[in-house]
């Protein structure tokens, strides 16, 4: 099925719908493992005393750690994935049968460092959808806003992700 104005209007019915879920506590072990995985050597991500000397309560997460995690649980079983690998639950209520789903980029705004021991909630909302035309035909660009919020209510990071439906 090709995307068109009918699919776009169905997608747009979800604009403004918000959700929130607890991500849990960002641990020092998570931070160190992620920093190693991306080849990071900054002592802020490994050395508690160094981080404290820089004014942080503990080591801090590399800036994109929380946005790089695609699932904060064990993830779905194979029968919970589409043929393109996208979890079916991620696209709930969207008319994506026969539509290819792809990542379209992300803008990230960093508000404050995330030290080990921070408990986070992710608040998400679809904020827009538009039909454009690419070299291979029509594409719907869907934008989602994600806020990563500390237990005290401070927004530590905001990301805007684009998802392409073709």
TrEMBL record:
Q: Which organism is it from?
A: Kribbella solani
Q: Which Pfam families match?
A: FAS1_DH_region
* Superkingdom of this protein's organism: Bacteria
TM regions (residue ranges): none
* Domain FAS1-like dehydratase stretches: 15-157
What is the name listed in the Swiss-Prot or TrEMBL entry for this protein?
Acyl dehydratase
């Amino acid at each position: 099925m090709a995307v068109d104005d009918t699919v776009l209007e169905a997608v747009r019915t979800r604009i403004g719908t918000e959700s929130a879920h607890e991500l849990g506590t960002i641990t020092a072990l998570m931070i160190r493992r992620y920093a190693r995985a991306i080849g990071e050597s900054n002592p802020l991500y490994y050395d508690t005393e160094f981080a404290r000397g820089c004014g942080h309560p503990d080591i801090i997460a590399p800036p994109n750690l929380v946005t790089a995690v695609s699932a904060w649980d064990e993830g779905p079983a194979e029968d919970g994935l589409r043929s393109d690998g996208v979890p079916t639950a991620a696209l709930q209520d969207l008319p994506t049968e026969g539509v290819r789903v792809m990542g379209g980029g992300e803008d990230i705004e960093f508000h404050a460092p995330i030290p080990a021991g921070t408990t986070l909630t992710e608040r998400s909302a679809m904020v827009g959808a538009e039909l454009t035309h690419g070299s291979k035909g029509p594409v719907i660009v869907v934008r989602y806003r994600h806020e990563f919020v500390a237990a005290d209510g401070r927004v530590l990071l905001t990301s805007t992700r684009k998802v392409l439906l073709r």
